[in-house]
Amino acid sequence: MICTGCSCLCDDVVVDEKVRHACRIGASLILNRNVARAEPMVDGRKTDLDSAIESAIELLKDSNKVLIYGLNYSTLEAQRIAMKLAKKIDAYLDNGLRYDLAEKLLDGEVRIATLEDVRDYAYVMMFWMFDAHNEMPRLMSRTYYARGKKRQRGYEEDRFLVVVDVRRSHTAMLAKKNAIFIEYDDELIKEFETAIRGGLARREVLKVVGELKKSDFNVIFTREFLPFANEFGYIVPTIPQTNAMGFYKVLREEGGKIGRLEELDIDTILVVGDDPLNDLPLNAIPNFIVIDPKVSFTSKIARVVIPSAISGLECGGTMLRCDLVEMKLKPPFKSEIDDVEILKRILRGL
Amino acid sequence: MRFARFLKRLELKLLTYRDGFQVASARKDKFGEEFVERTAIIIIHPNTAKTFGFKDGQIIRVKTKDRSIRVRLTLDEIAPENCALMPKSIYTNYLNTSTVVVEAEEGEVTKPQDILNELVIT
Lengths: 350, 122
Hints:
Chain A is of the alpha/beta class.
């Protein structure tokens, strides 16, 4: 199967009597799929699926300003329907993440490298404010540690690791041989820009820029846009949310109004597979309609809860990997209802 | 107890981070014991703890201007000396701040349901 634990979308995970090759996040998702499952609820009372969907439709009809939030764990097909739904009811969309890097990537302003290219060719690998070890646990074994076509001698000789962070993260602790840790501060971006153009900067930055000259394939793993990215080499966007890149792509294709919850006077939020109470500081609690396979903080206080399937595990579809490669999901289990079906029924009912 | 609390009080910059084990526990059950164990924690550098007399595993009250939670203290060098680290979660979302006051406390850690109750009431 293709693991949907994070945006690495590892395609070598095997599920039989055991779960093989998955990282701790993927294994937890697969092994605990039957734990804490959501049930259809309306105003805190259990109901059946049809009534929950009907109540969601009624609540959306009665709302003035709706936000559709999440969609980072849904398939491209579900995202597309959600965006059609947003258009129909003039709702705002938000996935709770930043847009700057995704926009530059989709505009073609920044060069993107696939994980396979990174494995085969990359020499300098810079992890910019990104703790791969915790956020996308198998990313380094698929790139930095792996031997590739032009990188046969292993990471200690054929790679140069740079970790930039405000603290010594677990990834930063790996910066030993042929590697460097740089503590982030507000001047660092400017210093990289200057050093790449031949100017002066701190010793560590000059060291990295010196290493860049040893290869024409260097890469930055980052989730923010860096103005020196093209001079450095390539980018791999590292948003760990499984199909966040898909959200940006579908949004670009379908069009839609982006709105931040904190900036709008929203009265109803349709949450798809996410948990705003975990992510967003809420000053007031609006009406929540939650579509989620599992019990979440938001589902506990939601007016309507509609249980769904876990994408990739119980329902198929397509997702975009962090490097924008399209992956067709191969679910080992089956579910009668999923995000696509639920959103279609809501769309029809409105 | 109250006297000890005055001694062990410290203002720190709060950083949030993603912890793989915590994310894995969230994928299992956000109201389960494993999630609380992985999430209701605050990490400070061992040197900072030594200076201010905090011990690994003790219960700590983390306070902002108008909100507070109880979490378990973990000592680890992944935290910078002038900062506290907490996994990004409903706990940090509830605190919603970049600076916190930490002080010694007794009792149990705050459960996610306690925060939800607080949010719904306010």
